[in-house]
Amino acid sequence: MQLYFDVLHLYYIPQYVPVLQELLSKGHKVSMVFYKNQDRRSVDVSHSFINKNSINAIWLASSDDAFNFYQNSNADWIVFGNSFEKVELLNKKTVLMQHGIGPKQCYYDVSQNKTTVRFVEGEHRLARLKSLYPHSNFIDVGYAKLDPIFNQTLEKLDLSDLGLDPCKKTLLYAPTFYPSSIECFSDDFPSHYRDFNIIIKPHHFSLFKQRYKKQRLKLEQWATFNNVYVASEYDFDLTPFLDIADIMISDASSAIFEFAALGKPVVWCDFYKLRWSYKGIFSFRLKARLDDDIEYFHQLCNRASCYEELQSIIGFAEQQPAEFVELRENIIYKLAGKTDGHSAKRIVSYLEEHK
């Protein structure tokens, strides 16, 4: 088979890679499609990834060219990490592997554009998508991004290589870009957690988009503390950080479901810096952006309702890491599916059987 993975954004790649590797191990031909009209830093990071992993890469001038390229390609399957304009008009078989499993409404909305198949995570999401789009094809396979952790093929990070202390426990702060908690944190946040290593993994958009420049000012300040490692654009894969962290703090991000799936304690920052257009009479916009799935956070996480509560909540999570264990397994099965490390194998088997 010949397959193309559409890399509109770098953060799609961690979901793709386990499937790509499984395809290559079975002798299939695989290419990744990148876009030249991204900012210079994204293009540089893409080239670095391509060279390091010996990826067969195709570069298009822009996403506007993608439809014609795919229409005239030799693809058996084209894999997307988000919705793709005119996907139903393509004369090829298409796959949607959504790049995250977070609580944002877009997780469900993207299936308004119908692909040949969408691989989904867990019985809850499968049932909801089927009720919303009864004529579409959804297959529950689990969440391939976490396969390398569960099947123990992930290359381990060394804390000392990050300038951190291997003898300390590690806090991972993995906020999303919007609505985000970053700007609610104090400038000296790391000084309150000297007994911890702190890894800060910002969203790709926090590092690149002009409107989030205030978030970057916070990141630059935190990076000056000697117990902190701030992930750069080259660290676009969250998975290695999930693997080595002891406790994670996050906000409206799919990272919460991902870390909880590993059976480790999560602190939910249920406080956000909102634009004026999402406040007061416009608060309905925030409700529309966040799906009801965020209610599951209450059953998975230790919740901090403001920054001032964070330190005591982290202390509780450290002392009581087994909190939520009984609820967590059932919820994760519903929202992330099987966590056996074989999601990519199930995906590839489907693609082979339905060529």
What is this structure, in a nutshell?
The protein is of the alpha/beta class and 355 residues long.
Written overview of the protein:
One of its GO terms (cellular component) is membrane. This is CDP-glycerol glycerophosphotransferase, TagB/SpsB family. The structure is a single chain. This protein has 355 residues and is an alpha/beta fold. It has two domains: 2-150 and 340-353, 3-Layer(aba) Sandwich (Rossmann fold); 159-336, Glycogen Phosphorylase B (Rossmann fold), CATH 3.40.50. The chain is built from 15 helices and 13 strands. Mean pLDDT is 88; it is low at 281-286.
Secondary structure elements and pairings:
Blueprint lengths: L1 E5 L6 H13 L3 E7 L4 H14 L3 E4 L5 H6 L5 E4 L12 E4 L9 H4 L7 E4 L2 H10 L5 E3 L6 H4 L18 E5 L22 E5 L3 H5 L4 H10 L5 E3 L8 H6 L2 E4 L4 H6 L5 E4 L14 H6 L7 H4 L1 E3 L5 H10 L5 H12 L6 H11 L2
Parallel strand pairs: 1-2, 1-4, 2-3, 4-5, 5-6, 6-7, 8-9, 8-11, 9-10, 11-12, 12-13
**Regions with pLDDT < 50 over 5+ consecutive residues?**
281-286
Radius of gyration: 20 Å
**Extended strand count:** 13
The SS-based structural class is alpha/beta
C-alpha end-to-end distance:
8 Å
Question: How much helix, percentage-wise, in residues?
Answer: 25-40%
Question: SSE order, as H and E?
Answer: EHEHEHEEHEHEHEEHHEHEHEHHEHHH
Number of domains: 2
Q: What percent strand?
A: 15-25%
Name of the CATH first level of the largest domain: Alpha Beta
CATH topology of the largest domain, what is it called? Rossmann fold
Q: What overall form do the CA principal axes indicate? A: globular
Number of helices, counting only DSSP H or I runs of 4 residues or more: 15
> What would CATH call the architecture of the largest domain?
3-Layer(aba) Sandwich
Strand order in the largest sheet: 3-2-1-4-5-6-7
Instruction: Give average pLDDT, whole number.
Output: 88
Quick one: biggest sheet? Answer: 7 strands, parallel
